[in-house]
Design goal:
about 170 residues; mainly alpha; DUF456 domain-containing protein; transmembrane helix
């Protein structure tokens, strides 16, 4: 635990910035956003300490973990339901990285969508309708997963902000 209020305040501000980077990482998957939030909250609780801080950190870590898990489960189920193997997803990820370099930040999403569609088109013997339908369903599932993870990550950051406010006022 830190000894001075100034050190606690500086640590809280730095961790707050790390948590904001984590929330951005949920939407723009350059960083593992939920993992950054979990680690940030854990470090904050260890350094600052106190019952309010630890309670908020544990709640925030559980929320971030739930969002991360929900995103993975929702996306995985949709991909299994549509029988999309890992190959087209990996091609979509490679195209997303290329798109990010060529046309940041929208290229990430466009590259993934076009890469996934192209891989599905080839895999489904150039059946445009089947490839388009499967790709749209996979993208919708991934979007819902990202939205759920974002909402829970935002709630975790709100718990942090509330606890920081309580910690420094009372």
């Amino acid at each position: 635990m830190l000894e001075s209020t100034t050190a606690e305040a500086v640590t809280t501000i730095i961790i707050g910035l790390v948590l904001l980077a984590g929330v951005v990482g949920v939407i723009l998957p350059v960083l593992p956003g939920s993992l950054v939030i979990i680690l940030g909250l854990l470090i904050w609780a260890i350094l600052v300490g106190g019952p309010v801080v630890w309670t908020a950190a544990v709640i925030g870590m559980l929320l971030a973990l739930a969002g991360w898990s929900a995103s993975t489960v929702l996306t995985g189920r949709a991909l299994q339901r549509e029988r999309i193997p890992r190959g087209p997803i990996l091609i979509g990820i490679v195209c997303a990285v290329i798109g990010l370099v060529i046309f940041p930040p929208l290229g990430l999403f466009l590259g993934f969508a076009l890469g996934l569609f192209g891989a599905e088109l080839i895999r489904r013997d150039y059946d445009w309708q089947a490839a388009g339908s499967a790709s749209l369903k996979a993208l919708r599932a991934m979007g819902i997963g990202i939205l759920v993870e974002f909402l829970l990550a935002g709630t975790a950051v709100a718990a942090f902000l509330l606890a920081a406010l309580i910690h420094f006022i009372f």
